Automatic annotation (TrEMBL):
Keywords: ATP-binding, Nucleotide-binding. The keyword Nucleotide-binding applies. This is ABC transporter ATP-binding protein.
C-alpha cells in the first residue's frame, strides 16, 4: 500500500487560480474522495498527482518519495477515466493486456494477470468481445480492470461512474467497495456526486474554489460541516438554513423575531452577542415539537406540500420566509396540515458565522 502527500499545491491557468495551496495527507490503504462542484479544481488536483499536469508550486509525495516532477510512468499508480478510453478495435482481453505488452511483460505473466483481474471483476465471459458489444457498466469494469492488471498499489479515479444510469452507478459503487476491501489498495476518487462520496469514502475532502474546506469521515462531514459551503453542498435534500443573530443568553433570533434556545449547542468558541449567524438543521433532525413553547416568538412552520418517498414522506414547509423540509412517517404518522412549531435538538444543529462561513 502507498501513501500520498499533497503539500501546498497551487495551480493557475494564466490569471485564473485553480488550486490555492492544497494540503492533504492520504494514508496507505485509504479510500479518499475529492468532492466538490464542477470547476472547483478536484480533477486538476488528481491530474497533478498522476503527473499529467505540472503544478506551479508545492510538492507531491508518493510512498514517501518526492514525485513532484517525476514522469507518470514512475509514480507507481493507475488511473481510470470518465470516458473509459478503451481501444475499439481490440477485444477486452487485448485491452486489459495492452499496457503490459508495451512494457514487454512476459506473455505468461500477462495471461495470468488478465485472468486474475477478469475473475475479480466477473468479466471472464466478456474477454473476447469488443467494447462496442458491451454495456456501459461492462465497459467501466474493463476500464477498471485495465488499471488493476498493473498490480499497482495506488489507483486514481476521475468521475468513473458519471456516464452510467442510476441503477448501474449503484451497482458499481458496491463493486468498488468490494474491490477496495479485497485489494487494500490506496484509492483517490474524484466526484461531484455526494452519494458516491458518502458511500465509498474512508474520508471525504470537500473542495471549493481550489481550497480544501473540510477533510473527515463522511458521517462527520454530514453531521458537523466545518463551513457553510460544506453544509449546503453535502446533503439531499439540502440543509435547512435560517439567518439571524446570536443573543447574550445563547438564543438565536431570526430576522422576524423568532427565537431558538441554543444552550445545548457545542460551540467551538463562544462568539460575542450580536454576531450575525446562520442556523442550519438537517431535514432528518426536524420534528413536530412535542411540547410547544406557546410563546409569541417561537418558530412557526406552515406545510406547503408533501413528496411521497415510500416508507417516509418529505414535508416542505414555509418557515420565517424560508423553505424548509422535514421527514414524516408515511405509515400511520400524523402529517401536519396546519401551522405548527418545528422542534429539533440544539446538539444536532449547525451554526455558522454569516461573514466568514466558518462553523461556530
Amino acid at each position: 500500500m502507498i501513501g500520498v502527500g499533497i503539500r501546498g499545491v497551487t495551480k493557475s491557468y494564466g490569471a485564473l487560480p485553480i488550486l490555492r495551496g492544497i494540503d492533504l495527507t492520504i494514508d496507505p490503504g485509504e479510500f479518499v474522495v475529492l468532492l466538490g462542484p464542477s470547476g472547483c479544481g478536484k480533477s486538476t488536483l488528481l491530474n497533478i498527482v498522476a503527473g499529467l499536469e505540472p503544478l506551479d508550486d508545492g510538492a507531491i509525495e508518493i510512498a514517501g518519495e518526492d514525485m513532484t516532477h517525476a514522469d507518470p510512468s514512475k509514480r507507481h499508480l493507475a488511473m481510470v477515466f470518465q470516458s473509459y478510453a478503451l481501444f475499439p478495435t481490440m477485444s477486452v482481453r487485448q485491452n486489459l493486456g495492452f499496457g503490459m505488452r508495451i512494457n514487454r511483460v512476459p506473455k505468461a505473466e500477462i495471461v495470468r494477470r488478465v485472468q486474475s483481474v477478469a475473475a475479480l471483476l466477473q468479466i471472464e465471459p466478456l474477454l473476447d468481445r469488443k467494447p462496442a458489444q458491451l454495456s456501459g457498466g461492462q465497459r467501466q469494469r474493463v476500464a477498471i480492470g485495465r488499471a488493476l492488471v498493473r498490480s499497482t498499489r495506488l489507483c486514481l479515479f476521475d468521475e468513473p461512474l458519471s456516464n452510467l444510469d442510476a441503477q448501474l452507478r449503484a451497482d458499481m459503487r458496491v463493486e468498488l467497495r468490494r474491490l477496495h476491501a479485497d485489494l487494500g489498495s490506496t484509492m483517490i476518487y474524484v466526484t461531484h456526486d455526494q452519494v458516491e462520496a458518502m458511500t465509498l469514502a474512508s474520508r471525504v475532502a470537500v473542495i471549493n474554489r481550489g481550497k480544501v474546506e473540510q477533510v473527515d469521515t463522511p458521517q462527520k462531514v454530514y453531521d458537523r460541516p466545518a463551513t457553510l459551503f460544506v453544509a449546503r453542498f453535502v446533503g439531499s435534500p439540502a440543509i435547512n438554513l435560517l439567518e439571524g443573530v446570536l443573543m447574550a443568553d445563547r438564543r438565536f433570533r431570526s430576522a422576524t423575531g423568532a427565537t431558538v434556545d441554543l444552550s445545548g449547542y457545542a460551540f467551538a468558541s463562544t462568539p460575542r452577542p450580536g454576531t450575525e449567524v446562520v442556523l442550519g438543521v438537517r431535514p432528518d433532525d426536524v420534528r413536530v415539537a412535542e411540547a410547544p413553547a406557546r410563546r409569541g416568538d417561537a418558530l412557526s412552520a406552515v406545510p406547503a406540500f408533501t413528496e411521497s418517498l415510500g416508507p417516509r414522506s418529505l414535508l416542505w414547509l414555509e418557515l420565517d420566509g424560508q423553505r424548509w423540509s422535514m421527514y414524516v412517517d408515511a405509515k400511520g404518522g400524523a402529517i401536519p396540515t396546519g401551522p405548527f412549531e418545528p422542534g429539533f435538538d440544539a446538539a444536532d444543529a449547525s451554526l455558522f458565522d454569516k461573514t466568514t462561513g466558518v462553523r461556530l
